[in-house]
Structures are given as structure tokens and as C-alpha cells.
Design brief:
CATH architecture of the largest domain: Roll
Largest sheet: 5 strands, antiparallel
Number of domains: 2
Number of strands: 5
Number of helices: 3
CATH topology of the largest domain: SH3 type barrels
Shape: rod-shaped
Helix content: 25-40%
CATH class of the largest domain: Mainly Beta
Strand order of the largest sheet: 4-3-2-1-5
Radius of gyration: 41 Å
């Protein structure tokens, strides 16, 4: 009895069966193979990446809402305050009693000294309430 390679015989039978089943679709498969085979397996090098420039940090300022220190309301309020005057101001959730140390009417800011602990703070005059 001649030596027969069983694995090779099975592979040949399976290949014939697959070829026979795919025969109606061979034209379409040839087009797909040509389309896929035409593209390289890996893209070549393209343009070099752009160097990333660091962007300086800019605080967002709402276009319609003036910032506290130079707003017209702050300048008007600063003109009504005078050094030595007793006032109250809010910071965070707290309300503090203070005394006006100095007023900068051009910028609309006021330097206050808290009555409670003597701490000096600079606040927009629009947020300071005369006592």
C-alpha cells in the first residue's frame, strides 16, 4: 500500500469544495482583491507634525459684563466713599465690617481694613456697601 498523506488529501478536497462554492462570486472577489491589493499595507510618511506652540493663559472676560474694578458702577461708587468711612463688604459667603483706608477713583477700587482682625483687602467699590 502506498504512503498517502491524509492531511494533504483532506486539504485538496476542502480547496476544491471551497472553489466550487465560490465560483459564482469570483468576479466580484477579483475586483475586491484588486482594490485591496493595490493599497500598500502601511501608509508612507506624510507631512511632519506641526510644532505645538504654548498658548498663554488668558482669563475669560464676559463681553457684556464689565469686570469689577474698572466698571462705570465701580468708579461712581468709589467717588461716594471716603477714607475713614465705615462700610460692609461681602467676600465668599461672609459679610464683613470694615473701614475705608484709601480710595482709587480712577480704577474704582477701595482698600479696606477689616474691623474684626485688621486685615487689609482691596475690593471693587461697587461691591462695598456704606454702613
Amino acid at each position: 500500500m502506498p504512503n498517502v498523506d491524509l492531511n494533504a488529501a483532506i486539504a485538496a478536497i476542502v480547496a476544491d469544495a471551497v472553489k466550487q462554492e465560490l465560483e459564482p462570486y469570483m468576479a466580484t472577489l477579483d475586483k475586491v482583491a484588486a482594490f485591496v491589493g493595490a493599497a500598500p499595507a502601511r501608509r508612507g510618511p506624510g507631512r511632519p507634525r506641526k510644532a505645538i506652540k504654548p498658548v498663554p493663559f488668558r482669563r475669560f472676560v464676559h463681553p457684556r459684563r464689565p469686570r469689577g474694578s474698572k466698571s462705570k458702577a465701580a468708579v461712581r461708587a468709589a467717588k461716594k466713599l471716603s477714607p475713614g468711612q465705615k462700610v460692609t463688604y461681602q467676600q465668599g459667603r461672609g459679610s464683613f465690617e470694615a473701614k475705608v483706608v484709601s480710595v482709587d477713583a480712577a480704577k474704582g477700587t477701595v482698600v479696606l481694613e477689616r474691623v474684626k482682625d485688621g486685615k487689609k483687602v482691596k475690593r471693587p467699590a461697587a461691591k462695598v456697601i456704606a454702613a
